[in-house]
Amino acid sequence: MGLKTILCITFFACNLLTGAESPVREAEPPYPLIPNSYSLETYDANGNLTRQRDNSKDLTKRISVDSQDRITQIQDGNGATLGSYWYDEGGFRIRKSSLEPKNNVFSNVEILYPNKFFGLEFIESENVITSVNNVYLNGVRIAALNEVGALAYFLTDQVDSVSLVLDDEGKTLSKMQYLPYGETFVQRGDLNFAPKYNSQELDRESGFYFYNARFYDPGIARFTSADAIIDGEFDTQGWNRFSYVKGNPIGAKDPSGHLGESQVVDTTVKIPLSKFLEEATKKTSEKAAENSGKVFSKVAGKATGALGFLVPSEVDAPTKKPSTDNRKDSKLPIYHRLESDTQTPKTAKMQEQSGEIWGKEARGSNFKSVQAYTGPLPKGKRGVEFITAAKEAPGSPPGKAKWVEGYAWS
């Protein structure tokens, strides 16, 4: 490998371009990020960051990756292990072992992730195991409950970066502010809460954020490995496989590590608080219900209590979206269908948005049918309201009927 002259870009602390020079570096082929005045990056043939030297802090990180370009271990310049990481077959990180500051002392910390809604942490020096239940809304962590029942609420900005953490009584537990690309600008209070910039988890042992598919280094505003997905083949920035949200960290985020999402909001659209809380209850996934459904009820209940003068209806009151009235007889009842245990959230959402109903074909018939019943939806139940020409089937329980598309029972 020979010496090669390449362009070197120097960035100011806030990622402002301050100069350019052409140093000589042993580099073949050109690397995705060129060394600047503050740090020196080394990459492997696949574009994975394997070594990082921070000259200003006199720190060196040696990074090991597996065959799927995932970071498995990070060591310091002396070979001491700072962090080790394990993943399942789908790429979800299931375990982390790291050296972290706990109560002003560096301790070995083991964290297990059975799923994203629940976590276990073991601090070796204290010989203590703690657990936490996480609550999500639209993929963003909004609250957490520990094993002693203490709740923490995460308040975020326009790109879902956690700026405030509040307790049950609304008191501030933690306050944070960030530079545009995620470097911490202000931090006060308890810093042990996991979600931070873009509501992603910061690995304090490395300074990297874990973005599910890849790791992100806010210090250089780049991912540590190349994106496996081209984010827009007709967009020049889409081919930059290391940049973050195409250079727009103020108005976009990248929750998956693969694809930037714009967070620009139409300010003319007003969402009532009652509707927000209602959607929060509906859109918590089935796994969240299993692991932290009670937690979410407590969160929503407290929010309703604190803001009751603004919320005229129950938090868990479901939205009824009637379909087109196709009754041949206006006196026929309106039917409802509950979400079944086997129905996917995707199908339920499609039904709620369109008012249409899907079901299996009845035995010995070409008609598609679903079980339905009359009357309002039970409190807290999720379902679809629809209007049909169906009549109660002979022998069916009172108030229940079998709805058959295009057919009425005689």
Can you offer a commentary on this structure?
The structure is a single chain. Among the domains are: 157-262, no CATH class; 334-404, no CATH class. It is 10% helix and 37% strand. It contains three helices and 28 strands. It has helices at 273-283, 286-306, 345-354; strands at 3-5, 8-11, 17-21, 24-26, 39-43, 49-54, 59-65, 71-76, 81-87, 93-102, 105-115, 118-123, 128-137, 140-146, 151-156, 162-166, 172-178, 184-189, 201-203, 208-210, 215-217, 222-223, 252-253, 261-262, 334-338, 369-374, 383-387, 400-404. It has a 14-stranded antiparallel beta sheet, covered by helices on one side. A hairpin with a 4-residue loop joins β20 (208-210) and β21. Residues 153-228 form the Teneurin-like YD-shell domain. Keywords: Repeat. Residues 317-340 have a biased composition (Basic and acidic residues).
Number of strands: 28
Individual helix count: 3
Distance between the amino and carboxyl termini: 85 Å
The percentage helix is: 10-25%
The SS-based structural class is mainly beta
Sheet with the most strands, sense and barrel status: 14 strands, antiparallel
- Determine the strand fraction and express it as a percent band: 35-45%
Radius of gyration: 27 Å
Q: What is the subunit arrangement here?
A: single chain
Strand sequence of the main sheet, in spatial order?
5-6-7-8-9-10-11-12-13-14-15-16-17-18
Give the overall pLDDT as a whole number. 70
Biased composition (Basic and acidic residues): 317-340
Biased composition (Polar residues): 341-354
Protein name: RHS repeat-associated core domain protein
InterPro entries: Rhs_assc_core, T6SS_VgrG/RHS, TEN-like_YD-shell
